[in-house]
What we know:
Elements: E1 5-10, H1 17-26, E2 30-35, H2 38-45, E3 60-63, E4 66-69, H3 71-81, H4 92-116, H5 120-146, H6 160-174, H7 176-179, H8 183-193, H9 196-202
Parallel strand pairs: 1-2
Antiparallel strand pairs: 1-3, 3-4
Helix pairs in contact: 1-3, 1-6, 4-5, 4-6, 5-8, 6-8
Amino acid sequence: xxxxxxxxxxxxRGLAQPLRFYxxxxxxxxxxxxxxxxxxxxxxxxxxxxxxxxxxxxxxxKDGDELVFESQALYxxxxxxxxxxxxxxxxxxxxxxxxxxxxxLQDLFKSLISLFTIPEDQYxxxxxxxxxxxxxxxxxxxxxxxxxxxxxxxxxLTYIDxxxxxxxxxxxxYKPDTFTTLVGLKTHNESFANLPAIKHYLSSDKMIARPFxxxxxxxxx
Length: 221
């Protein structure tokens, strides 16, 4: 293990933003290695040690000689690295609930990506119908689930809350009026944003406010 872990990802929010929140909360010293151009990534991925790994991908964590790939695996690795395995769920019930919420969240993220990658010449005409038919029902389901819950699995914070917060931030920025009606999501969003480590990070110059997605490839972000 190294003195400082390295989180490697594009210079956008994307899959890495919940991990940045996570690292801040865990208080692990880290380097936020941002790739601004594809060429920068291609140089690294073609060189040791990244080119020695079959599963190489973005985002990744480099911790001394240890390399970890695939975003869901990074949450598990970092929880153990910070001696906070409780963030993975403290009992079987929490772990099953976490997995269930993660599945719904993945559906929400996929639907948002499909919305924001509608062909440019069709986007304005289709975006509202697509949001109302393919996105909002998933958000409403999550919001209803979160009502009367402190965190996603109940009383205890877990890593899925970090991913949930990013989904909420996308919805809050894209459809602010709609987001205010999603009471469960809105309450969770406010509670998470007020965690001391998160509150400090959100107001710091380390925070990436935008873009959420790669400019030019997505209609919004």
